[in-house]
Amino acid sequence: MKLYHSSNVSVEFPDTLHSRDDLDFGKGFYLTPIKDQAISYAQRFQRRMQDAWLNIYELTYSTKDWKEKVFYSYDKEWLDFISECRAGRDCFNFDIVIGGIANDKDIRTLDRYFQGEISSEQALGILKYEKPNIQYCIRNQEMIDNCLKHISSIQL
To answer: What are phi and psi of 108, to 5 degrees?
Structure first.
């Protein structure tokens, strides 16, 4: 499967070390199968007057060899998982997590939920109208090393 990662540098040797701890799916290397999404995300570097790179990879793995968690929709389990990870309480033992990305519009709803302004039911009620953009978070360096192959990097 072809996946994309945006950065301000070419990333030939991805790792989990350069990731922040408090992201949607915890510390890991984030990718998307949606090229336009990756390009749009890369434009944030350009707006900061930095270089923007689209890094392209091939991911091949078997679910029998790795612990995988897939979120098929914005639901209570997804919301709880993101809440824990963003609060720095990532105690989940998955090698790879796949699911909806909290985009700019979604993050406003999530921030209101995290701040206690709205309930989980209200947040999910708003999010049910959003079509999730998919992100992959590889949380295990061994999986990156064995399953993710760098194809190319294109400066935008």
So the answer is: -65, -40
Say how many residues make up the chain.
156
Q: For residues 79 and 41, what is the distance between their CA atoms, to the nearest angstrom?
A: 22
Determine how many CB atoms are found less than 10 A away from the CB of residue 18.
11
Query: What is the pTM for the complete model shown?
Result: 0.86
C-alpha to C-alpha distance for 55 and 126, rounded to whole angstroms: 33
pLDDT in tens, the chain (156 residues): 999 999 999 999 999 998 888 888 999 999 999 999 899 889 888 889 999 999 999 999 998 999 999 998 888 898 889 888 888 888 789 999 999 876 556 667 777 777 888 888 888 877 776 666 789 999 999 999 999 999 999 999
Kindly state the tokens that stand for 133: 């953009």
**Is the CB of residue 38 less than 8 Å from the CB of residue 3?**
no
The Cα 31–Cα 128 span in angstroms is 23
* Contact by Cβ (8 Å): 132, 35: no
